[in-house]
Amino acid sequence: MPAYEFDASRAMLKNPDMFQRFSVPDGPGEPLAAAGLAPDTDLIVIERGSEARAFTVRQMAYHHLAQGVLGGEPYVLTF
Q1: What pLDDT score was predicted for residue 23?
Q2: 2-8 long-range contacts, Cβ below 8 Å, gap at least 24?
Q3: Residue 48 maps to a domain
């Protein structure tokens, strides 16, 4: 198999913010029980230490990126 080198001229760097990031506000967030989600809602859950955040797959399919702070450390979630 031939080795290929990265060709920077083919990189799509003109518009790096193609997707609108979902900026998650700092703080404890809304409990899932209070969110009014349907029982069959698909979720992506991230955890750090004793803290967790849940995102609906529908949210992430639109935004593709979510960023915030969890457990005192920044995170970026991609989908």
Answers
A1: 73
A2: none
A3: yes
Gap between the Cα atoms of 70 and 29, Å rounded: 11
**Alpha-carbon span 7 to 72, nearest angstrom:** 38
Tell me, yes or no, whether 16 lies in a domain.
Answer: no
Residue 23 lies in a domain: no
Q: Is residue 56 a part of any domain in this protein?
A: yes
Pairing of strands 22-23, 65-70: parallel
Alpha-carbon gap, residue 23 to 63, rounded angstroms: 10
Residue 32 identity (one-letter amino acid): L
Residue range of the domain that includes 75: 40-79
Q: Tell which wins on pLDDT, 2 or 33.
A: 33
